[in-house]
Amino acid sequence: MKNSFSYIKISGILLVLFLFCDLIPRSHPEHREGSRIEILHFVQNDRIQPSQAIPAAKQTCPKGYTAVRPQCSLLFNLPAFAQGINENIEIPQDTAEIRVPGEILVDIRDNVSPEDLQRFSSIHHITLEPNSDYSAEDKLMRVKVAEENLESMVNELSKDPMVESAEPEYLFFALFYPNDPLYKYQWSMEKTGARSAWRDSAGEGVIVAVIDTGVAFEDYKNFHKIEDLQDTKFVQGYNFVSRNIHPDDDHAHGSHVTGIIAQSTFNGKGTAGIAYKCSIMPIKVLSADGFGRVGDIAEAIRFAADHGAKVINMSLGGPFPSSILRRACQYAKKKGVIIVCAAGNSKSAKISYPAAFPECIAVSAVRYDGQIAFYSNRGRRVDIAAPGGDMNVDQNNDGYPDGILQNTIAIKDPSKEGYYQFQGTSMAAPHVSAAAALVESLGVTNPDAVKRLLKMTAGVPAGVNPAAGYGAGVVDCGKAVFFAGFFAGLLKLLMAVAFAVFIARITRFSGKKNYFYWLQTVPGILIGASGLFFLPYLIDFDMPLRGILFRGFPQWDIFFFGAGSHENPLFYSALVPFIAAIFFQSNRFLRCFAAGLNLGVGGQLLFSLIFREAVLKYIPNFFFLDELWLALNILFCLFMAFSLIAVPMKKEGVI
Asked: Which domains does the chain have, with CATH numbers?
């Protein structure tokens, strides 16, 4: 027994050298609740409330802004509303690019001092205005000049070494087509496999930022929290339009998008959301008219990434490949955020920005039969497709047009609400954002891994050409969750069992006479590697502790701290198995449990090392330090399992 304890002490001393004292992250306050799966019904006498009809007028530039023709062949359309239930929606193919007149967006280098900024202003004879309250850190400024001098000033500022980028300020806009919603069932939920996904995940522990027109999430002044977001969880967002902490919706678009992601579900009213247990971060960058500045959108992306969001949904876009917006997307991705964007509604083979950036997932729209919707952009840069609706048809023969139905405010009237149908790639994108939240709650938090999993599990409808704009196919939440939950859990368990077989072979602690001892390691192996990952696929039930019961120990960090802190080194290490070995080594059953825990944690760490479904927190990702961390801790786990089994059992005459 002394030999066993000395082995453990030596391994513990070595382990401490690789652990940090300040690894515990700040947790995000969350509420966890269980719910029972049941059939959903509409409220208000089981009827959909018709939307107010808004004439589909010709697109015009908002008052005070300038319309300029784009210099490339990218075609796009401004937000439009359908006039009637079955009236065709004509998509303008040659509309103007919307630019803020006489305004330049300037990204100053972060290391420029206040004195240098004053000298910069004097040299160029301009006045720098911070874009928002957050501009003190990222040095994103606005400059107002005479319209006739705008082009020359952009060129002048771009050449200054203190400037990273200078460009005219443009407006981006919501990509959607709301109509009179008389559609009764949420067909998109079934088409994306949401109900089957709920067996294993509802988005727990994941924060999704909705960068849009705001959300009807609070009772504030003339705004109110709509009825089917009453049980939805929210975290603090920001209003970049009014520069305050009240990102309320005065348009309807953002609340509808939010409903697709996280409408309150299983509450006996309204509609359902796909990732209904995730937390929504409402960020307003679009006005009541559906327009917003590039600078605000760029800072909103950084705000979301800095405040714990793991998924960003942007159902907005424009034709301008802003370098400032691109860098914001790169910043968010480096912080582990998956960015999902609408591809656009102009029938074009070129998709809008920011969807076209490689850091984002570009989403096209399909209708009920799986065909690409008539309005949807398509092309080689589309990553994946999702239901966006088609209000011109009733393909499921339920008597209502095939739009996407959710609870939202009345259009431009936050005092009223209803259950309205919209259509567009704006509605397709949040289906993918919700799918990303589902798999992230299961531990797949590396943006590249999330994108790879969603594309791998997407399905292409029979008889269609994927090259027509589907990307990898139509998103399948159920299949993605199955691979992230059951299939991954099985692989982790098999890896832990393989380690057990390896230990049994090298210690010769095998054979029928030793089965009983190995059976005592099974609880520890399950807790360490996979939890009861198979149980949701045998029994339909939900419970508050599912994040612990159905996951291996290293993934418990999601339950305690949220997906934003997944792969916390205190969990993804041999520390806890080592502590168990110290306290349990004197009792045979507990010693076997501790050995199993080491084998199980080692199996899950090996899975993470091979598949990189997440990125280790607080460990620099260079010179393979994260891979080295995992490899060393796997060896520690195996060494401790060997010490707990081989030395004591040999002394007791078992082997």
From this structure: 2-18+481-651 (no CATH), 101-169 (3.30.70.80), 181-475 (3.40.50.200)
